[in-house]
Amino acid sequence: MKTGQKGLALIKEFEGWYSEPYLDPVGIATIGYGFTYYLPGRKKVTLKDKPLSRAEGDPMLKEILTNYENDVLRIVKKPLTQNQFDALVSFTYNLGATNLGKSTLLKKVNMNPNDPTIADEFPKWNKAGGKVLPGLVRRRKAEAELYFNK
């Protein structure tokens, strides 16, 4: 599976576009759509890097997403709808496969991907650096809504 248009739009909306490098809320150098590294080569972003154009960033996002799509495909053991997959890829893009892998969210998805209590698991992941961030509250709500959108 590949991320669909709804998932791509959600990721772009919440990551935003930054052509110049900046520090994210936990102090990690970031550029573009939340990139912390460049492809090819996985060179880390630094605050001294040159600006990135959207013409460079859009294909880079699709290439980077492949890693997160593969993570979701590897650790989710049940068939998913496109919207379920997209929501989990967005979650994983933001939080990493390690966090998805140890989450109750994943446990519930792997037991029954249509369990309505899965919606209660997304909002639990609303902190960065120990602080609740309004952007993460909105993102988790949007991911849960996409997950259950038919």
Helix content: 40-55%
What string gives the helices and strands in order?
HEEEEHHHHEEH
Count of domain modules: 1
Low-confidence stretches: none
Number of strands: 6
CATH topology category name: Lysozyme
Q: Quote the beta fraction.
A: 5-15%
Please state how the strands of the largest beta sheet are arranged side by side: 1-2
Average of pLDDT: 96
Give the N-to-C terminal Cα separation: 17 Å
The major sheet is characterized as: 2 strands, antiparallel
Mass-distribution shape? globular
Return the CATH architecture: Orthogonal Bundle
Supply the helix-strand structural class: alpha+beta
Rg over alpha carbons: 15 Å
Output the CATH class name: Mainly Alpha
How many helix segments?
6
Care to describe what's here?
With 150 residues, this protein is an alpha+beta fold. The protein is globular. The protein has one domain: Orthogonal Bundle (Lysozyme). The protein has 6 helices and 6 strands; from the N terminus they run αββββααααββα. The mean pLDDT is 96.
Mind sketching the topology for me?
Elements: H1 5-15, E1 18-23, E2 29-32, E3 37-38, E4 43-44, H2 54-75, H3 82-95, H4 97-101, H5 104-111, E5 127-128, E6 131-132, H6 134-147
Antiparallel strand pairs: 1-2, 3-4, 5-6
Helix pairs in contact: 1-3, 1-6, 2-3, 3-6
Give the structure's gist in a few sentences.
With 150 residues, the protein is an alpha+beta fold. Helix content is 49%, strand content 12%.
